Hints:
The protein is of the alpha+beta class. The chain contains 1 helix and 7 strands; from the N terminus they run E-E-E-E-E-E-E-H. The model has no long low-confidence stretch (mean pLDDT about 75).
Amino acid sequence: xxxxxxxxxxxxxxxxxxxxxxxxxxxxxxxxxxxxxxxxxxxxxxxxxxxxxxxxxxxxxxxxxxxxxxxxxxxxxxxxxxxxxxxxxxxxxxxxxxxxxxxxxxxxxxxxx
Length: 113
């Protein structure tokens, strides 16, 4: 099993053709099913085959075709890091500027004749 969970958002980091398990030849996908940098949702997390278990995922937004729904290797994806929008650092920058201006103005006035 992979460390991904159903419903989790992931980003594709590898969309290159994969090597066939028997011949080692590059297997071309019929169309660009997954694209590097695109975000997908995990539909299922499993292993490829009991004899050679490779962590795999199936995606909501990407299917091979109606008759063949093969999983993608989990190493092709990484979790999307969702960060809450936070402007506090910009507010602190503004606060720091005001403090600096106030300090400089006070020092200047103290030196006036």
